Amino acid sequence: MTPEESITAISAGEDSHRQFKQDITNADALAAEMAAFANSEGGTIFIGVADDGTVPGLTLKDVGRLNQLISNSASYHVKSPLNVRTENVRMEKDRIVIVLTVPKGIDKPYFDKNGVIWIKTGADKRRVNTKEELCRLFQSADQFHADELPTKAGTDRIDRLRLRMFLEKKYGIQYPESDDDLLRILQNMNLATDSGKLNLAGVLLFAENPEWIKPEFIVKGVCYPGNDVHISSYHDMEDFSGTLPEIFEKALSFIMRNLHKIQAGRGINAPGIPEVPEIVFEELLVNALIHRDYFISAPVRIFIFDNRIEIISPGNLPKNLTVAKIKTGNSNIRNPVLTSFAAKGLLPYRGLGSGIKRAVEEWPDIDFTDDREGGLFKVIIHRKYSRER
After folding, report:
1. Do 72 and 112 contact (CB within 8 A), yes or no?
2. What average pLDDT does this structure show over 99-108?
3. Which sign does the torsion angle of CA 240, 245, 250, 255 carry?
4. Which segments constitute the Schlafen AlbA-2 domain (predicted)?
């Protein structure tokens, strides 16, 4: 990095990827800063720069001391050790700024010496305080996923008819005769834990009345008059529960019955064509059910207005995904067990990364909002025909 490049970066101020330190004397404090960057998206620490952006710089003696401190801190004060990079940039008056680059971690979560997990929040850092946040860090490193979370439900909660039909159709095998054989099959299918309980995927796909076990993972639908949310006025409202395939069918029917039907040159007795193709909602609903964040205890919501339909999923886009990337077919698997069973025919799933792309190809007038502050992902399907009731 040249002095000019350093000055340009410093002039932009501190943010979630850039931090200033006039000097560092405590290895533990530096370890906490590096762990926060590694647990987030990585970043750069400019040492020799004051909080206000002025550059007092460092002496050569300071540089020797600090490089040793950085090495010790990254190697012995962070668990797991970090591979960081330093660059000494000579500024005016022979003063030096150390540019310390911390990469995004691949072995999350990273702890400081006291066992505290830090993440970046804007220009600051904070402790990870909740189980959900900790699980999400493991998920981001592909070490753990929400659909593998154990539940309190045993194998006696399985919908035997539903599982029997799936086993015969997909694998050509009969329903097991003993409880031990049933548990072994469920464990082999990654639907039950080693302790004998159903995991979340097992509940959502094959449990009888899964809403009794996990009541938060349903879909709520409301059709409002006009273009705004009303407190008490609505045309249609329903909560959809059951297994994910059942929820999908019910939610899709709710949307389709509240759309206009267009004659499109057909005879008076011919059924009308939906104003928005049904496949658009198939793709978007499957995406909402399979790729939502199940670490967040909240339902998927469907709002139908005169000028648009909104599908709101708990959780923002995972990892490095952006709206632009998902529209071109990029994706990350947030819930691999659910995804694998959707691909086995339980839902109309046509392949990883293809759903959003196909929906936009069928109906380009769709907006996507990745609300990272609110922790949700919103799809807005714009309608071309106003409702008249």
Report:
1. no
2. 88
3. positive
4. 14-129
